[in-house]
Amino acid sequence: KPDTRSDVSIRQMLEYFKDAKFKKWIPLLLLLKIPANVAFYFSNPQLIDKGLGLAEVGYIFGIWGMGAAVASGLVAGLVFKRAEIRTKLIIAIVANIIAIASAFLLSYVSSSQTTIIIFLCLAMGSMLGLTGMILNDVAMRHVRSGVEATDYSLQNFLSSLFYNPIIFVSGYIAQNFGYPVLFVCIAGIILVQLVFMSTYKSIKPNEW
After folding, report:
1. Lowest mean pLDDT across 4-8, 103-107, 110-114, 158-162
2. Contact 129, 136 (CB under 8 A)
């Protein structure tokens, strides 16, 4: 087997941030993951607060929701494989809007409206899978030749580093101000995504 290992210094890793092609991608990298994930995962405790049992919530989100996430990720990977990067990012933002809107609507659904709950869960799960697929695909387009694995792992680290504090703050907001307020706040992140998207320029294939 060919040896794909290479010595990469910390300095070389940090030079990623100096690359002009990547600078406008980094804000989107940090923000794209948040809305669909918050919508999906915070809808679990939201339903428990409405009176549903753990088994019911686990069935709705564990089976229906995650099933939709896996299916949508696979389908989207095939359908949008040849789409321009900018187009993929716009689709991801639209998916985030749908996910947050679904979570917000769920806030006003009673625990007895099972069909509507499952429908909204399917919508959120599908958008979660779609945004996840696009985020990973686009991240692999923003790597330097020869250090692809390093750059990809750096992007994953940055995304998680920014995402985890947001989840902590989201929990505080949901507990103290309610889930609708949380989802409105997260909708603000989507507006910020749109601002950064307006300045983003797709990388051409010969620049990958």
Report:
1. 4-8
2. no
Alpha carbon 6 to its chain's center: 31
Give me 55's structure tokens: 């088994």
pLDDT at 129 over 60: yes
Contacts 24+ apart (CB under 8 A), 160-168: 162/30, 162/31, 163/30, 163/33, 163/34, 163/37, 166/34, 166/38, 167/37, 167/38, 167/41
DSSP 25: T
Eight-state DSSP code of residue 203: P
Pure H helices in the chain:
10-14, 20-23, 26-32, 34-49, 54-59, 66-79, 85-106, 114-141, 148-177, 179-197
Q: What is the distance of C-alpha 95 from the center of its chain?
A: 9
Long-range pairs of 88-93 with CB within 8 A, sequence gap ≥ 24: 88/134, 88/137, 88/138, 89/28, 89/32, 89/134, 89/138, 89/197, 89/200, 90/197, 91/130, 91/134, 92/32, 92/130, 92/131, 92/134, 92/135, 93/32, 93/190, 93/193, 93/194, 93/197
Contact 69/132 with Cβ under 8 angstroms? Answer: yes
Q: Count the residues in the chain.
A: 208
Task: State the DSSP code for 142.
Answer: S
pTM of model > 0.85: yes
86-105 pLDDT, tens digit per residue, is: 889 999 999 999 999 999 99
